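Structure ticket #2291
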Amino acid sequence: MTTCGQFCPVSKAAEILFEKWTILILRELLMGSSRFSDLQRGISRISPTLLTKRLKTLEENGVLVRKKISGQRGYEYFLTPAGKELKPLLEHVAIWGMRWARGQMSDDELDVELLMREIQRRLQTDKLPGGETVILFNFTDENLLQYKKWWVWITGDDVDLCTEDPGKDVALYIVTDVRTMIEVWQGDKGIEKCIRDNSIQAHGTRSLITTMPDWIGLSLYAGISAANK
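Resolution: structure written out below.
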């Protein structure tokens, strides 16, 4: 671990929390991820070796605990009281980021896996009809070599993601590009306007299309406006 060489509490906290990827690991843990594979899906660009290293550092510093999965191989990771106490800090970082670091997104920042994980987390199942609903997101980006299609399979309050056809009847097809969907999720663009200007094409059950602004579930911080720099 790189040290700052100072005794003050800001320095000591920075040594633990501000190594690359650590804040994002904490974000995933605070959002409910507990298994190694879930953490990797939420931070798709971190290598397994580095993720293991960062988790070990957080464990050694009392921020999380590692528990063996009963009857299975592998471990789960849970925040300790010290880790849970970081929630307001990360919330303030997110708010600051939306207000002050909300610039033009470069193409290499358009992480479709993170986008779909966030849609899975934030989808408002109580605004959907009862029973089973399957929604297919089809991304048109030419640079996407894989994961162009995502099936969102909702049963009651359970929301599953599939990148291979689960063999279910699709109630709604959504065709768009990753940038547009991220801008919608962040609150920068309205869904209805995107449907009108055809940057989002929606085909299928009419009621799902008309109620899309209600159930899509935007970012927790979508209502925060960018500051005038």
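Closing remark: The mean pLDDT is 92.
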